[in-house]
Amino acid sequence: HVTHLIWSISETIANLSTLFKLEPGDLIFSGTPEGVGAVQRGQTMVGRVEGLSGIAVKYV
Fold first, then answer.
1. What is the pLDDT along the chain (60 residues), one digit of tens a residue?
2. Using CA atoms, how far apart are residues 56 and 10, in angstroms rounded to an integer?
């Protein structure tokens, strides 16, 4: 969850904007929060972005 990140999303965008020209459609990948482990067989990963359809992927 994004609340576990060191910097907020707006801080991340502001910091990266000083280094790169960010444009609509650009993707920003972040690190993994502390305590998160590898996905195990049978687990489902769920992703959501406000205003868009969600996605769920099950690792079989």
1. 777 788 888 999 999 999 999 999 999 988 776 777 889 999 999 998 889 999 999 999
2. 25
- Rounding to the nearest 10 degrees, give the CA dihedral for residues 7, 38, 56, 16: 20
DSSP code of 32?
A: P
**What 3-state DSSP class applies to 28?**
coil
Cα distances (Å, whole numbers) of residue 39 to 17, 36, 46, 60 = 32, 9, 12, 10
The two tokens of residue 44 are 């489902």
Q: For residues 51 and 27, what is the distance between their CA atoms, to the nearest angstrom? A: 16
3-state SS, residue 4: helix
